[in-house]
Design goal:
By secondary structure, the chain is α+β, with helices and mostly antiparallel strands. About 25% of the residues lie in helices and about 30% in strands. The strands form three sheets. Strands 1, 2, 9, 10, 11, 12, 18 and 19 form an eight-stranded mixed β-sheet that branches. The protein has an eight-stranded mixed β-sheet with strand order 6-7-5-14-15-16-13-17. A three-stranded antiparallel β-sheet has the order 3-8-4. β18 (about 325) and β19 form a beta hairpin.
């Protein structure tokens, strides 16, 4: 039998991170990806994800400094720039639960931050046209991760340490066993592994729910981001403009100029249109129009017609809590799911946790 110490299914952010940590631990993992590393069919591609100390969840906020250190270590190992620090700005009425909870988490974790009054917000950030009752919360320890580069760097560093990668490899079936798991590929190949980690992203329910005593409740929605040309580029350079989140309607989030010269990336989350992960990634015209109207209303110096729109998928649990678990019947199988929207910044730590689960 071709038996491996560890096989990991799915080379998105979490699977790549698990492979990276497993390789560093000397487990010589095999990473299986049904498409190719960096594909655009899931949730781990693109040039920017927000990472930030400011978080309404106290425990999630507490772990972020460690992830910053790990991303910096990966930068040194790979020779690539993966994390750009820009600071973060959260805006909305002062009583907005997101702002209230985020401020409380920052205080409990003893992170520095700054509250901005409505007048200070308008004076210091002329990029925005905001309601008169909105205030700001600024936190310096934040920025963007280059998602595609992070995934590629983790995979490359894992391979350099002995990991193997098989792309365009779909797992059709696996048979769990406490000692050795058999995986059957769609091309007829079979592999055996002492340990198995499953990070299948939008396909997680399809892969995991056939297992005994598992019934994951995951919701998949189609999302899109738009790149808008600028009339006043100096306002949106990263030296002058942080990553930001509107904590109240219209719940926008976005970035300074980072990926495309002369353009900013802005998005409006879709919470309504659920989808099948195999469906075509068609642009949602209603979402695009709503975003254009919000940009025209709330931004200065931005042309409210995007130069391009990109799509991706979110996979979330009902309470938006991450799933990082070991199977209740098989201690040699761990799985992660439900990370979309907030999970990428934690991926390098979650990958470590998944490896730890199957090593115990």
């Amino acid at each position: 039998m071709d038996t491996h110490e560890l096989i990991i299914i799915g080379a998105g952010a979490m699977g790549s991170a698990a492979t990276y940590h497993a390789a560093k631990a000397g487990l010589n993992p095999l990473l299986l990806e049904q498409f190719e590393v960096g594909h655009s069919n899931g949730s781990s591609h693109g040039g920017s994800r927000i990472t930030r100390y400011a978080n309404p969840d106290i425990e999630e906020s507490r772990v972020i400094p460690a992830t910053f250190r790990m991303w910096r270590e990966l930068e040194q190992e790979s020779g690539q720039r993966l994390l750009d620090i820009t600071g973060s700005l959260f805006m909305g009425p002062d009583s907005t639960p997101f702002l209230v909870d985020t401020r409380a988490a920052l205080q409990l974790n003893e992170y520095d931050y700054r509250d901005l009054s409505s007048q200070e917000l308008a004076t210091e950030y002329p990029q925005f046209n905001l309601p008169d009752d909105w205030v700001g919360l600024y936190q310096a320890d934040a920025g963007r991760l280059n998602a595609s580069s992070c995934v590629r760097a983790m995979v490359d560093q894992a391979i350099a340490r002995g990991a193997q990668l098989k792309e365009n490899t779909e797992v059709a079936q696996f048979v769990p066993d406490a000692d050795c798991v058999m995986l059957a590929l769609s091309n007829g190949e079979q592999f055996y592994t002492k340990r198995l980690i499953i990070t299948a992203g939008p396909w997680a329910s399809r892969v995991l729910n056939p297992l005994p005593n598992l019934d994951l409740d995951l919701r998949i929605t189609r999302q899109q981001v738009a790149y808008y040309p600028l009339e006043q580029e100096e306002l949106y350079r990263k030296e002058n403009f942080p990553v930001y989140v509107f904590a109240a309607e219209p719940n926008l989030y976005g970035f300074p100029i980072l990926e495309k010269p002369g353009h900013v990336k802005i998005a409006l989350e879709n919470e309504n249109l659920t989808t099948n992960p195999d469906d075509p990634r068609a642009v949602m015209e209603d979402n695009a129009q709503a975003l254009n109207e919000a940009v025209a209303k709330h931004f200065n110096g931005v042309v409210p017609e995007p130069a391009s729109i990109e799509t991706c998928l979110y996979t979330e649990t009902p309470g938006r809590k991450f799933i990082v678990e070991r199977h209740p019947d098989f201690a040699n199988i761990a799985y992660g799911a439900g990370f979309s929207g907030r999970g990428f910044k934690f991926s390098i730590e979650i990958g470590r946790q998944l490896v730890e689960l199957v090593e115990q």
